[in-house]
C-alpha cells in the first residue's frame, strides 16, 4: 500500500508565489512518487492523502499486475 514518506518545505518553484512550496514523497514496495505542491502544509498533506487513496484503490495490495505484451497480427490479405 502507498504511504507518505516525507513532506518538506522547499525553495519556491515559482518565485512570484506568496505561498510556501512543499515536496512530498509517497511510495509502496515497488514505486516511489515525488511531487511538488504550493500551499500550506495541511493542504499538501490532504492532497497527498487523496493521491494515496486513489492509488491504493486502483492498485490493491497483494493483487499482481501482469501486463501482456502487445499482440501483432502479421497476416495480410492481398
Write up this protein.
The protein is of the alpha+beta class and 78 residues long. The protein has one domain (3-58). 23% of the residues lie in helices and 28% in strands. The protein is built from one helix and three strands; from the N terminus they run βββα. The protein has one helix at residues 41-58, and strands at residues 3-10, 21-27, 32-38. A hairpin with a 4-residue loop joins strand 2 and strand 3 (32-38). It starts with a strand and ends in a 20-residue tail after the last helix. Mean pLDDT is 83; it is low at 72-78.
- State the total count of DSSP E strands: 3
- Based on Cα principal axes, name the global outline: elongated
Calculate Rg over CA atoms.
Answer: 19 Å
- Helix and strand pattern: EEEH
Largest sheet: 3 strands, antiparallel
| Secondary structural class | alpha+beta
Roughly what fraction of the amino acids lie in strands? 25-35%
Number of helices: 1
Outline the low-pLDDT stretches. 72-78
Q: How far is it from the N-terminal to the C-terminal residue, by CA?
A: 52 Å
Major sheet: order of its strands?
1-2-3
Mean pLDDT: 83
Amino acid at each position: 500500500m502507498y504511504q507518505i514518506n516525507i513532506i518538506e518545505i522547499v525553495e519556491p518553484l515559482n518565485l512570484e508565489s506568496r505561498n510556501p512550496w512543499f515536496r512530498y514523497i509517497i511510495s509502496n514496495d515497488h514505486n516511489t512518487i515525488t511531487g511538488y505542491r504550493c500551499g500550506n502544509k495541511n493542504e499538501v498533506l490532504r492532497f497527498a492523502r487523496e493521491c494515496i487513496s486513489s492509488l491504493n484503490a486502483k492498485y490493491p495490495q497483494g493483487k499482481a499486475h501482469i501486463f501482456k505484451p502487445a499482440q501483432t497480427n502479421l497476416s495480410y490479405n492481398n
